[in-house]
Design brief:
With 406 residues, the protein is of the alpha/beta class. The termini are far apart.
Amino acid sequence: MGLSVRGRQIRAGFLMQRVLLTVMLGAIGGPLPFSVLVYLSPTGVHQILASPPLTDNSPQPERPQLSFATWWRGDFQRGVESWFGDRVEPRGRIVRLTNEVYYRLFAKSYMYNRTIVVGREGHLYELGYLKAYCRSADRLGRGGSASLLAKLSEVLPMLERSDRWLLFLLTPSKPVIMPEFLPRGVCDGLPASLAERARFLTSLRSAGIPVIDGPGVTQTMKVSDPLPPFPRGGTHWSRLVGARVSTTVMEAAKRRSGRDMGQLSVDPPRWNAAPTGADIDLARLLNLWRPPLDYPAPSVAWRCGPTAAGRDTRLVAVGGSFLEQVLEPIAACALFGRIDYYNYYDKWRREWPGRRILPVDRAAIRWQEELSRPTVVLLELNESSIIGNGAPHLELFLDDLRVALR
């Protein structure tokens, strides 16, 4: 007697489960022999077989340590997942192929924690700057920067009592400077960015804070230059704009201190150079087979004129990633005896000479001693922070200075 209908259904269900289990085990176990082959192969063969890294600048996960405690807490299991996923082959190639499909067909990217937004004509934007730009005027509160202004006003005279000069650099946001390439309909209201920037700059100047209007300088360059101030594949201003702002910083330091701390000039650029460095930072993070680097960028070259007064002076810079392009030519020209760049104050510190990156221990910093020689203190804030999360890193730095300099 044959099986009943119910029996055949049960048997088919078991068969389907076995098929699915076999497929799953094959998908998991299939790449393992190839992964072993890749990582045991000689260097030359390894370079051919191995997948490209998932990102250009992220450190690889460390191999987790197995112990009873790490197993009990689940640390080992979580660590194995990321460590194994980073090494299994050919994951990197599959990820790049998938990214290519999403980018070419749908103008989407899931890399960089899904924070890359593809605008018109391929211009890339970062989601954080875009959210700040789209906050409309009727949803903004006033006085969000009052605490920062109060602390700046208090610390300014403390610093400038003896050969310590404060400069405040406001940097631009790509959506504010270049809204014409934003995705259509990206904001549901009238952006308030320009009004908030103007109000903030007025408040700084009224408080006597020496300020460099980076957005204003950048907007002027946008009008006069043949290429936009933000590259198509970058989230920061171009390396050329950053270098030009470097000259503005040096001029402001000379005016504020009355000392010639060195000359810095930027050569007239070529407008057809290949984009490199910060000019392609978001394009690289797309992690594609063929990154969209087919756009011109301005060349960057500068001339140095260091002085004894500058080399006797220290530069302490506190702020975000826009400072990288500003400090690049200043450090290359060795215009200051020492430069310390504090990324968001307590994230990490880069020092010149040497370009070493070091951790920051706020409790171990003795600011009264650190500022014992002539020092320029350069604070940077992006305009997106005015209507975004504010400037907690600058306030933290100013709090520490206030305690140390009393």
